[in-house]
Amino acid sequence: MKTTLESAPRKLKAAALVGTGMASLARSGKANKVSILAFHGLCDGMGDEQVLDWSLHLPQSIFRRVCAFLASNYNVIPLSELVACLANGEKLRPNSVVLTFDDGYASNYHLAFPVLKEFGLPATIFVATGFLDGVEKLWFQRADLALCRTQKEYLDWKFELGKERLPLSTRRQRQEALARLLPELKRLPDADLLGEIGHLEHQLGLNEPSIEDMPAPMRPMTWAQTRELQSSGLVDIGGHTHSHPVLSRCDPHAMRGEIFTCRDRIQAELGIKPTAFAYPNGSYRDYTKESVQLVKEAGFQSACGAHHFHIQPTTSVFELPRYGTPESVWEAEATVSGAYQLVKEWRQSAHTSLMSYLT
Protein backbone atom coordinates (compact mmCIF):
# COMPACT_ATOMS: atom_id res chain seq x y z
CA MET A 1 0.00 0.00 0.00
CA LYS A 2 1.48 3.35 -0.99
CA THR A 3 0.64 6.32 1.20
CA THR A 4 1.19 9.93 0.18
CA LEU A 5 4.38 10.18 2.24
CA GLU A 6 5.75 6.90 0.90
CA SER A 7 5.10 7.81 -2.74
CA ALA A 8 6.53 11.35 -2.48
CA PRO A 9 10.21 10.29 -2.95
CA ARG A 10 9.25 8.29 -6.05
CA LYS A 11 7.45 11.30 -7.52
CA LEU A 12 10.49 13.50 -6.90
CA LYS A 13 12.76 10.89 -8.47
CA ALA A 14 10.48 10.70 -11.52
CA ALA A 15 10.51 14.48 -11.90
CA ALA A 16 14.32 14.48 -11.71
CA LEU A 17 14.65 11.72 -14.32
CA VAL A 18 12.36 13.55 -16.73
CA GLY A 19 13.76 17.02 -16.04
CA THR A 20 17.40 16.00 -16.53
CA GLY A 21 16.69 14.29 -19.85
CA MET A 22 17.36 10.80 -18.46
CA ALA A 23 13.93 9.61 -19.55
CA SER A 24 14.50 10.83 -23.13
CA LEU A 25 17.89 9.08 -23.18
CA ALA A 26 16.34 5.86 -21.92
CA ARG A 27 13.48 6.05 -24.43
CA SER A 28 15.89 6.47 -27.36
CA GLY A 29 17.67 3.25 -26.32
CA LYS A 30 14.49 1.36 -25.54
CA ALA A 31 14.22 -0.03 -29.09
CA ASN A 32 11.82 -2.97 -29.20
CA LYS A 33 11.24 -3.26 -25.47
CA VAL A 34 7.63 -2.94 -24.33
CA SER A 35 6.20 -1.82 -21.00
CA ILE A 36 2.99 -3.11 -19.42
CA LEU A 37 1.25 -0.90 -16.88
CA ALA A 38 -1.09 -2.33 -14.24
CA PHE A 39 -3.94 -0.21 -12.92
CA HIS A 40 -6.78 -1.26 -10.62
CA GLY A 41 -9.68 1.12 -10.10
CA LEU A 42 -10.22 4.86 -10.51
CA CYS A 43 -12.00 7.41 -8.34
CA ASP A 44 -13.56 10.85 -8.62
CA GLY A 45 -11.56 13.61 -6.99
CA MET A 46 -8.49 12.74 -4.94
CA GLY A 47 -9.78 9.72 -3.05
CA ASP A 48 -12.62 8.52 -0.86
CA GLU A 49 -12.59 8.95 2.93
CA GLN A 50 -14.35 5.58 3.23
CA VAL A 51 -11.30 3.82 1.72
CA LEU A 52 -7.94 3.57 3.48
CA ASP A 53 -5.83 2.26 0.58
CA TRP A 54 -6.11 4.89 -2.13
CA SER A 55 -3.25 3.36 -4.12
CA LEU A 56 -5.74 1.00 -5.80
CA HIS A 57 -7.98 3.85 -6.98
CA LEU A 58 -6.17 6.43 -9.12
CA PRO A 59 -8.02 9.75 -9.61
CA GLN A 60 -9.60 9.87 -13.04
CA SER A 61 -8.04 13.27 -13.74
CA ILE A 62 -4.54 11.82 -13.34
CA PHE A 63 -5.43 8.77 -15.41
CA ARG A 64 -6.65 11.04 -18.20
CA ARG A 65 -3.40 13.04 -18.19
CA VAL A 66 -1.35 9.82 -18.28
CA CYS A 67 -3.42 8.52 -21.21
CA ALA A 68 -3.10 11.80 -23.10
CA PHE A 69 0.67 11.66 -22.65
CA LEU A 70 0.93 8.03 -23.74
CA ALA A 71 -1.32 8.61 -26.77
CA SER A 72 0.95 11.46 -27.95
CA ASN A 73 4.34 9.90 -27.23
CA TYR A 74 4.01 6.10 -27.33
CA ASN A 75 2.37 3.30 -29.25
CA VAL A 76 -0.34 1.92 -26.96
CA ILE A 77 -1.01 -1.59 -28.27
CA PRO A 78 -3.35 -4.43 -27.24
CA LEU A 79 -1.91 -7.16 -25.05
CA SER A 80 -2.89 -9.64 -27.75
CA GLU A 81 -0.57 -7.91 -30.24
CA LEU A 82 2.33 -8.15 -27.81
CA VAL A 83 1.66 -11.83 -27.14
CA ALA A 84 1.39 -12.62 -30.87
CA CYS A 85 4.73 -10.90 -31.58
CA LEU A 86 6.48 -12.78 -28.79
CA ALA A 87 4.96 -16.12 -29.77
CA ASN A 88 5.88 -15.69 -33.45
CA GLY A 89 9.30 -14.15 -32.88
CA GLU A 90 8.25 -10.92 -34.59
CA LYS A 91 9.67 -7.49 -33.86
CA LEU A 92 7.78 -5.40 -31.37
CA ARG A 93 6.79 -1.86 -32.27
CA PRO A 94 9.29 0.55 -30.66
CA ASN A 95 8.18 2.57 -27.64
CA SER A 96 5.09 0.44 -27.14
CA VAL A 97 2.98 0.31 -24.00
CA VAL A 98 0.21 -2.08 -22.91
CA LEU A 99 -2.52 -0.98 -20.46
CA THR A 100 -4.08 -3.47 -18.04
CA PHE A 101 -6.47 -3.33 -15.08
CA ASP A 102 -6.89 -5.88 -12.28
CA ASP A 103 -9.91 -7.10 -10.30
CA GLY A 104 -12.89 -5.72 -12.26
CA TYR A 105 -13.99 -2.55 -10.48
CA ALA A 106 -17.09 -0.69 -11.65
CA SER A 107 -14.89 2.37 -12.09
CA ASN A 108 -13.19 0.60 -15.01
CA TYR A 109 -16.50 0.99 -16.81
CA HIS A 110 -17.68 4.36 -15.45
CA LEU A 111 -14.38 6.27 -15.27
CA ALA A 112 -11.64 4.47 -17.23
CA PHE A 113 -13.62 3.40 -20.30
CA PRO A 114 -14.66 6.97 -21.32
CA VAL A 115 -11.00 8.04 -21.20
CA LEU A 116 -9.86 5.00 -23.21
CA LYS A 117 -12.52 5.81 -25.83
CA GLU A 118 -11.51 9.48 -25.90
CA PHE A 119 -7.93 8.60 -26.88
CA GLY A 120 -8.65 5.34 -28.69
CA LEU A 121 -6.45 3.30 -26.36
CA PRO A 122 -6.85 -0.49 -26.04
CA ALA A 123 -6.69 -2.19 -22.64
CA THR A 124 -7.15 -5.57 -20.95
CA ILE A 125 -9.19 -5.90 -17.76
CA PHE A 126 -8.46 -8.98 -15.66
CA VAL A 127 -11.56 -9.83 -13.62
CA ALA A 128 -12.03 -11.88 -10.47
CA THR A 129 -15.25 -13.60 -11.51
CA GLY A 130 -16.62 -14.25 -8.02
CA PHE A 131 -16.30 -10.51 -7.37
CA LEU A 132 -18.42 -9.74 -10.44
CA ASP A 133 -20.87 -12.49 -9.51
CA GLY A 134 -21.36 -10.79 -6.15
CA VAL A 135 -20.59 -13.99 -4.25
CA GLU A 136 -16.98 -13.20 -3.31
CA LYS A 137 -15.80 -10.00 -1.63
CA LEU A 138 -12.15 -9.16 -2.20
CA TRP A 139 -10.52 -10.10 1.10
CA PHE A 140 -8.22 -7.09 1.22
CA GLN A 141 -11.21 -4.79 0.77
CA ARG A 142 -12.90 -6.39 3.77
CA ALA A 143 -9.77 -5.71 5.83
CA ASP A 144 -9.67 -2.11 4.58
CA LEU A 145 -13.33 -1.46 5.44
CA ALA A 146 -13.10 -3.13 8.86
CA LEU A 147 -10.20 -0.91 9.90
CA CYS A 148 -11.76 2.19 8.35
CA ARG A 149 -15.22 1.76 9.92
CA THR A 150 -14.46 0.37 13.37
CA GLN A 151 -15.20 2.35 16.51
CA LYS A 152 -12.33 0.61 18.31
CA GLU A 153 -9.30 2.67 19.29
CA TYR A 154 -6.82 -0.20 18.94
CA LEU A 155 -6.48 -3.75 17.61
CA ASP A 156 -4.62 -6.55 19.38
CA TRP A 157 -3.33 -8.94 16.73
CA LYS A 158 -1.04 -11.94 16.80
CA PHE A 159 1.68 -11.54 14.19
CA GLU A 160 4.29 -14.08 13.18
CA LEU A 161 6.78 -12.66 15.70
CA GLY A 162 4.30 -12.10 18.52
CA LYS A 163 1.27 -10.14 19.62
CA GLU A 164 1.08 -6.41 18.94
CA ARG A 165 -1.34 -3.61 19.77
CA LEU A 166 -2.08 -1.42 16.74
CA PRO A 167 -3.49 2.04 17.52
CA LEU A 168 -6.52 3.10 15.47
CA SER A 169 -7.29 6.58 16.79
CA THR A 170 -6.41 8.44 13.58
CA ARG A 171 -6.84 7.74 9.87
CA ARG A 172 -3.07 7.57 9.45
CA GLN A 173 -2.83 4.96 12.22
CA ARG A 174 -5.54 2.90 10.50
CA GLN A 175 -3.63 3.07 7.21
CA GLU A 176 -0.46 1.97 8.97
CA ALA A 177 -2.34 -0.89 10.64
CA LEU A 178 -3.64 -2.03 7.24
CA ALA A 179 -0.11 -1.88 5.83
CA ARG A 180 1.08 -4.09 8.71
CA LEU A 181 -1.75 -6.60 8.40
CA LEU A 182 -1.85 -7.20 4.64
CA PRO A 183 1.60 -8.88 4.33
CA GLU A 184 0.77 -11.13 7.29
CA LEU A 185 -2.59 -12.13 5.82
CA LYS A 186 -1.03 -12.85 2.41
CA ARG A 187 1.27 -15.41 4.01
CA LEU A 188 -1.62 -17.48 5.35
CA PRO A 189 -2.78 -20.67 3.62
CA ASP A 190 -5.79 -19.76 1.47
CA ALA A 191 -7.95 -22.20 3.43
CA ASP A 192 -7.35 -20.07 6.56
CA LEU A 193 -7.46 -16.59 5.04
CA LEU A 194 -11.18 -15.85 5.04
CA GLY A 195 -11.46 -17.18 8.57
CA GLU A 196 -8.85 -14.67 9.68
CA ILE A 197 -10.65 -11.86 7.83
CA GLY A 198 -13.83 -12.85 9.66
CA HIS A 199 -11.89 -12.87 12.94
CA LEU A 200 -10.56 -9.37 12.16
CA GLU A 201 -14.08 -8.07 11.48
CA HIS A 202 -15.31 -9.65 14.73
CA GLN A 203 -12.44 -8.13 16.71
CA LEU A 204 -13.33 -4.72 15.30
CA GLY A 205 -17.05 -5.10 15.96
CA LEU A 206 -18.18 -5.33 12.33
CA ASN A 207 -19.88 -7.79 10.00
CA GLU A 208 -18.91 -8.71 6.44
CA PRO A 209 -20.21 -5.88 4.21
CA SER A 210 -22.72 -6.42 1.44
CA ILE A 211 -21.96 -5.21 -2.09
CA GLU A 212 -24.50 -2.41 -1.63
CA ASP A 213 -22.78 -1.30 1.58
CA MET A 214 -19.37 -0.92 -0.06
CA PRO A 215 -18.00 2.50 -1.10
CA ALA A 216 -18.37 3.22 -4.82
CA PRO A 217 -14.64 2.75 -5.65
CA MET A 218 -14.75 -0.79 -4.22
CA ARG A 219 -17.78 -2.07 -6.12
CA PRO A 220 -17.47 -4.55 -9.03
CA MET A 221 -18.64 -4.17 -12.58
CA THR A 222 -21.78 -5.97 -13.66
CA TRP A 223 -21.55 -8.66 -16.30
CA ALA A 224 -23.66 -6.44 -18.60
CA GLN A 225 -21.02 -3.72 -18.32
CA THR A 226 -18.30 -6.27 -18.97
CA ARG A 227 -20.07 -7.45 -22.13
CA GLU A 228 -20.32 -3.86 -23.35
CA LEU A 229 -16.60 -3.35 -22.78
CA GLN A 230 -15.71 -6.56 -24.62
CA SER A 231 -17.95 -5.68 -27.59
CA SER A 232 -16.41 -2.18 -27.89
CA GLY A 233 -13.32 -3.53 -29.67
CA LEU A 234 -11.08 -1.53 -27.31
CA VAL A 235 -11.23 -3.69 -24.21
CA ASP A 236 -10.41 -7.36 -23.77
CA ILE A 237 -11.58 -9.24 -20.67
CA GLY A 238 -9.08 -11.61 -19.07
CA GLY A 239 -9.07 -13.89 -16.02
CA HIS A 240 -7.86 -13.06 -12.51
CA THR A 241 -9.07 -16.19 -10.64
CA HIS A 242 -12.53 -16.55 -9.08
CA SER A 243 -12.01 -15.23 -5.52
CA HIS A 244 -8.59 -13.51 -5.79
CA PRO A 245 -6.46 -15.79 -3.58
CA VAL A 246 -2.68 -15.83 -3.56
CA LEU A 247 -2.28 -18.94 -5.74
CA SER A 248 0.90 -20.14 -4.07
CA ARG A 249 -1.11 -20.38 -0.83
CA CYS A 250 -3.74 -22.65 -2.41
CA ASP A 251 -3.68 -26.45 -2.39
CA PRO A 252 -3.62 -28.06 -5.87
CA HIS A 253 -7.38 -28.69 -5.94
CA ALA A 254 -8.26 -25.14 -4.91
CA MET A 255 -5.74 -23.67 -7.36
CA ARG A 256 -7.28 -25.59 -10.25
CA GLY A 257 -10.77 -24.55 -9.17
CA GLU A 258 -9.83 -20.86 -9.01
CA ILE A 259 -8.33 -20.84 -12.52
CA PHE A 260 -10.85 -23.05 -14.30
CA THR A 261 -13.93 -21.55 -12.62
CA CYS A 262 -12.70 -18.11 -13.67
CA ARG A 263 -12.33 -19.26 -17.27
CA ASP A 264 -15.74 -20.93 -17.30
CA ARG A 265 -17.59 -17.95 -15.78
CA ILE A 266 -16.11 -15.54 -18.33
CA GLN A 267 -16.97 -17.88 -21.19
CA ALA A 268 -20.52 -18.34 -19.88
CA GLU A 269 -21.13 -14.60 -19.51
CA LEU A 270 -19.32 -13.27 -22.58
CA GLY A 271 -19.68 -16.18 -24.95
CA ILE A 272 -15.94 -16.24 -25.67
CA LYS A 273 -13.05 -18.09 -24.13
CA PRO A 274 -10.65 -15.68 -22.38
CA THR A 275 -7.08 -15.77 -23.63
CA ALA A 276 -5.21 -13.67 -21.04
CA PHE A 277 -4.73 -14.21 -17.31
CA ALA A 278 -3.12 -12.29 -14.44
CA TYR A 279 -1.80 -13.87 -11.23
CA PRO A 280 -3.24 -12.15 -8.12
CA ASN A 281 -0.61 -10.13 -6.31
CA GLY A 282 1.76 -11.33 -9.02
CA SER A 283 5.25 -11.55 -7.52
CA TYR A 284 7.34 -14.66 -8.12
CA ARG A 285 6.43 -15.97 -4.66
CA ASP A 286 2.68 -15.52 -5.29
CA TYR A 287 2.31 -18.27 -7.91
CA THR A 288 4.09 -21.53 -8.69
CA LYS A 289 5.12 -23.69 -11.63
CA GLU A 290 1.87 -25.57 -11.05
CA SER A 291 -0.04 -22.29 -11.37
CA VAL A 292 1.59 -21.61 -14.73
CA GLN A 293 0.85 -25.12 -15.94
CA LEU A 294 -2.80 -24.88 -14.92
CA VAL A 295 -3.16 -21.53 -16.70
CA LYS A 296 -1.84 -23.17 -19.86
CA GLU A 297 -4.06 -26.22 -19.36
CA ALA A 298 -7.10 -23.97 -19.00
CA GLY A 299 -6.42 -22.61 -22.48
CA PHE A 300 -5.09 -19.16 -21.64
CA GLN A 301 -2.48 -17.95 -24.12
CA SER A 302 -0.65 -15.53 -21.83
CA ALA A 303 -0.36 -14.52 -18.18
CA CYS A 304 0.87 -11.39 -16.42
CA GLY A 305 2.67 -11.06 -13.12
CA ALA A 306 3.89 -8.02 -11.21
CA HIS A 307 7.63 -8.16 -11.87
CA HIS A 308 8.98 -4.70 -12.67
CA PHE A 309 10.82 -5.15 -15.97
CA HIS A 310 10.41 -4.29 -19.62
CA ILE A 311 9.36 -6.96 -22.08
CA GLN A 312 12.25 -8.52 -23.99
CA PRO A 313 11.93 -10.64 -27.17
CA THR A 314 12.77 -13.68 -25.00
CA THR A 315 10.19 -12.95 -22.29
CA SER A 316 7.83 -15.86 -21.54
CA VAL A 317 4.24 -15.05 -22.49
CA PHE A 318 3.13 -16.81 -19.28
CA GLU A 319 5.23 -14.61 -16.98
CA LEU A 320 4.86 -11.16 -18.49
CA PRO A 321 6.24 -8.44 -16.18
CA ARG A 322 4.20 -5.35 -15.38
CA TYR A 323 4.88 -2.03 -13.70
CA GLY A 324 2.54 -0.64 -11.05
CA THR A 325 0.22 2.33 -11.42
CA PRO A 326 2.00 5.61 -12.28
CA GLU A 327 0.64 8.42 -10.09
CA SER A 328 1.67 11.27 -12.42
CA VAL A 329 2.70 11.91 -16.02
CA TRP A 330 6.31 12.24 -14.88
CA GLU A 331 6.13 8.84 -13.19
CA ALA A 332 4.55 7.34 -16.30
CA GLU A 333 7.37 8.71 -18.47
CA ALA A 334 10.10 7.59 -16.05
CA THR A 335 8.55 4.11 -16.02
CA VAL A 336 7.70 3.37 -19.65
CA SER A 337 10.77 5.13 -21.05
CA GLY A 338 12.98 2.77 -19.09
CA ALA A 339 14.60 5.52 -17.01
CA TYR A 340 13.90 3.77 -13.71
CA GLN A 341 15.27 0.52 -15.14
CA LEU A 342 18.34 2.27 -16.58
CA VAL A 343 19.23 3.79 -13.21
CA LYS A 344 18.71 0.41 -11.54
CA GLU A 345 21.05 -1.24 -14.05
CA TRP A 346 23.69 1.46 -13.56
CA ARG A 347 23.56 0.96 -9.81
CA GLN A 348 23.90 -2.81 -10.16
CA SER A 349 26.81 -2.38 -12.56
CA ALA A 350 28.55 0.07 -10.22
CA HIS A 351 28.03 -2.27 -7.26
CA THR A 352 29.40 -5.23 -9.23
CA SER A 353 32.45 -3.24 -10.33
CA LEU A 354 33.12 -2.05 -6.79
CA MET A 355 32.84 -5.55 -5.32
CA SER A 356 35.11 -6.90 -8.05
CA TYR A 357 37.68 -4.21 -7.26
CA LEU A 358 37.53 -4.89 -3.51
CA THR A 359 37.99 -8.64 -3.96
Give an overview in words.
There is one protein chain. This protein has 359 residues and is of the alpha/beta class. The protein is 48% helix and 14% strand. It has 14 helices and eleven strands. Strands 1, 4, 5, 6 and 9 form a five-stranded parallel beta sheet that branches. Strands 2-3 form a two-stranded parallel ribbon. The longest helix is centred in the last third of the chain and has 20 residues. The N terminus is likely disordered.
Which descriptors apply to this entry?
single chain; 359 residues; alpha/beta; five-stranded parallel beta sheet; two-stranded parallel sheet; 11 strands; 48% helix; globular
The computed structural class is alpha/beta
The description of the largest β-sheet is: 5 strands, parallel
User: DSSP helix count?
Assistant: 14
- Estimate the mean pLDDT confidence: 88
Shape: globular
The proportion of residues in beta strands is 5-15%
The termini sit apart by 39 Å
Low-confidence stretches: 1-6
Helix content: 40-55%
Please count the beta strands (DSSP E, at least 2 residues each): 11
Order of helices and strands: HHEEEHEHEHEHHEEHHHEHEHEHH
The Rg value, from CA coordinates, equals 21 Å
